[in-house]
Design brief:
Shape: globular
Number of strands: 14
Structural class: alpha+beta
CATH superfamily of the largest domain: Naphthalene 1,2-dioxygenase Alpha Subunit, Chain A, domain 1
Distance between the termini: 28 Å
Radius of gyration: 22 Å
Pfam family, one: Rieske
Mean pLDDT: 93
Keywords: 2Fe-2S, Dioxygenase, Iron, Iron-sulfur, Metal-binding, NAD, Oxidoreductase
Protein name: Aromatic ring-hydroxylating dioxygenase subunit alpha
GO molecular function: 2 iron, 2 sulfur cluster binding; dioxygenase activity; iron ion binding
Strand content: 15-25%
Family: Belongs to the bacterial ring-hydroxylating dioxygenase alpha subunit family.
Amino acid sequence: MQPDQSSRAVHCPHRGSHVCQEDYGNASHFKCPYHGWVFKNDGSFVGAPEMQAAYGGRLNASEWGLRRAPKVDSIHGFIFACLSEEAESLRDYLGGAAWMFDAIFGLHPDGVKALAPPERFILHADWKSGAENFVGDTYHIGTAHHSVTLTGYLPGDVREGGQYAHGFLFENGHEFLGYRLPEWFGPPFKYWGFPEELASQFDLSALDETQRELLVTVPPSVGTIFPNFSYLRMPEPPGPGEFPIPNTDIRVWSPIAPGVMEVWHWQFNFAFMPEEYQRKAYLSGQYTFGAGGIFEQDDMTIWEGASKAAQSPWNRKVGAELNYQQKRPEPNPDWKGPGQFFDTYYGEYLQAGFWKQWLKMMRNG
């Protein structure tokens, strides 16, 4: 993102080739690898090879710069771009989810940082499978991930998690799920399990009373910003037999073809924390939710299987329907935060919120 809060496309306007192949870093200029057109890092056109011979003179720089995204904004360092001029502001679009973002990422003036370049991998599954799962599908964990318990890598039994889970339902298809971690794992797991000497450095002055209570009772553990930005923060061991520490997993489910997505996956942590702690947080996240992680492998197999079934000519012919018929709970009437808070994760209300938003956008074009 540029100092003027703008963002540019990385496709050359000459023949559409990518002008930047890197996932991170800085450069003053970008040169298209196809025909050598050059652009400043603000997207403005600099020049092209042999312009006099090829074009009869200099090209009009105002016409051939990299395209600017119509709407660009950021929240706690995360940059969001929108390709519609008519879109509302980022905070308006996030609604109550912005309040949740503040509670998750707005805990220290130094912010958070990526611990490594993004990990990218291809899944032969629809992008919505991942996004819907991360809104808070705890129902699958006891079955799909029971193998994790059998390895002994994690303390306790993953099948117990459902009784400690709560849902947060916001507008525009944004949903989160939190666990009563101190009750499940013990008092050290307030603030997701960040040790006292680090959690004591959090600045909670900008948070309201409900947010502060949330962090010590039901810290938000997983969620999706509609359509395809997902978050996870859970305490997990950085190695066999080690004490669990929180990792912060951010991912984007990027559709690249029908039934195929590319997952962009980062590990984050608070920038002020010691380097050795950040190293362990990175390992904690990669062992569990990296491309080869013990949780991630289960999910990839399941989502790809569902995608194969969806492509079946027979399934298409008979019009197979999926089951979203868990009994719907009522939200907690005493909740003082934005959106709705539920005392149980059962009911598929989080998934329903996601699909209602998707259907709304499909109908509205």
